[in-house]
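Anyone able to model this chain together with 5'-O-(acetylsulfamoyl)adenosine?
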Amino acid sequence: MSNYHIKHLEEYYQVYRKSVREPENFWEEVAEEHFLWRKKWDAVLEWDFSKPEVTWFKNAKLNITENCIDRHLATRAHKTAILFEPNNPDEEAQHITYKELSERVNQFANVLKEQGVKKGDRVCIYVPMIPELAISVLACARIGAIHSVVFAGFSSTALATRINDADCKMVITADGSYRGAKTIDLKGIVDEALNKCPCIETVLVAKRINSKINMKQGRDQWLQPLLDKASTICDATTMDAEDPLFILYTSGSTGMPKGMVHTTAGYMIYTAYTFKNAFQYKENDVYWCTADIGWITGHSYIVYGPLLNGATTVLFEGVPSYPDFGRFWQIVEKHNINQFYTAPTAIRALAKHGTELVDKYDLSSLKVLGSVGEPINEEAWHWYNDNVGKKKSPIIDTWWQTETGGMMITPIPYVTPTKPTYATLPFIGIQPCLMDENGQELKGNQVEGRLCIKYPWPSMARTIWGNHQRYKETYFSAFQNKYFTGDGALRDEVGYYRITGRVDDVIIVSGHNLGTAPIEDAINEHPAVAESAIVGFPHDIKGSALYGYVILKDAGESRNHDNLRKEINQAISEKIGPIAKLDKIQFSNGLPKTRSGKIMRRILRKIAANEMDNLGDVSTLLNPEIVQSIIDNKL
Ligand code: 7RM
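re: yes, here you go
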């Protein structure tokens, strides 16, 4: 009997119980039956959340790319592995077979070796959504280099910070990228970042838009001529189960972004297993996740999860709005997409344009619809269900995080009955719990609290790059012996979970997690600004948008406030990226503070959301009088 593919609800409960009662036996069976190992493990799991230290498949040896590519060559050599759909609908799609993928990954891996990249070295990948992005990720994994993909929409400052934090020795990039009707000068951004990155020795540049760029002698090289000379054979480097596979940055509520470190074997098993079940993927299905590989969703469910299952995975370069808002549905029809995975912010943006552009295309190939990144509101859920799924494709609302590596709470389609806005039941092997503010676990159903996980799962991040102490403080200190997610959630009468949002200060704008602190830092650098606080407020399309409260140094000075607003947003754009620009900027005389000097964002959030009746107790504030003045001047 195989636990690998769950097909009905009885089976879910049965397998779930086994995964909780005998987690080691359970994961050992999955690992043995479905993966290629160079050496088996000495122990399935060792863990101690107080350190925290987690080891899965101790001393096992493997290479994840052999599992993603080589082992499919006997049966799937001519099957499409990556289906590349370009930004421009008139440019031909590319079908990259498993055989071709194998050759291209090996060539790329040989180039990396030639350029001096060794096992354990960090390589920054700042590449748009073109095949070279997936191929470079796999090429790193082939030789045991640790990839650190930085979303190719981030600013040069954000890029430089991430390159330096991981001490990368190489950047892989492209001349530029297409985004709808626009082009972006990626190489220019890299050049600017590298003024601040002494650790970088080599830059490899893929040609995509044929723009004129500067190539720095001795540092920069065009990729293609190097690939053309490289052998299509490259032995995979033997990796330990716990060797780092990649670093991926996620913003925290304070300070530097956190470089989450994922390791090899556990990540492999869990992304493969969740992909198979959460999408009910069947041989010959065509699967499409619209995320960028620069996010964890793209790592786990464009690259690794699908390829580990020998699937066909679509890689789309463009945006939902180009050449018009029917682009997604045109692609679904064109490639007969069976599983479609996107974010609520995209659904809301498309819903705004009506159903005409959805109805225009034949979407009958669709079997499963996925949602990820933020809570999906009821309206968006129904729009997706009615107009895209025609009420016959189950929606899987998948809750998980960069830190968790794979889906944690999600329905299994055709298995778990769905309920709008609910992520429903924990995935196999996941033991969630809800905690109250005093650190007590809330037992039973119909409770709401802070979402924690009680027991290790294979794809959990093992540390923050270079800062294990911060890892411990952020995730393992709020509640003893538990991983704290930072999210609030409720459990309904049947045990279904609904995620209610972040309980800390991370704001999710259009599916992008934005920490308040770095944005406030950018604002505060403006010479006229004394202090600022930003909060999220509900927004039809973006989910949350940013509302900034800004205190000027000289309130009496007469200034052109609209110019100042522009300058502030300009500063944010440069330091963080355009995604972090504020929708509203209110100039106020002060910020509500606690007696220990902390800004009370709870109050600011309520004012921004127009919930003035319901501010709660403000009497403990240092400066309660400021609240009324902020309300009076609300935008
Ligand atoms: C996969 C991803 C993680 C945060 C997470 C939540 C929020 C993600 C859902 C969701 C409600 C969902 N990783 N989140 N999925 N909230 N329902 N289905 O998004 O690291 O970028 O973000 O996103 O707050 O903690 S992430």
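The domain at 510-632 is CATH 3.30.300.30 (GMP Synthetase; Chain A, domain 3).
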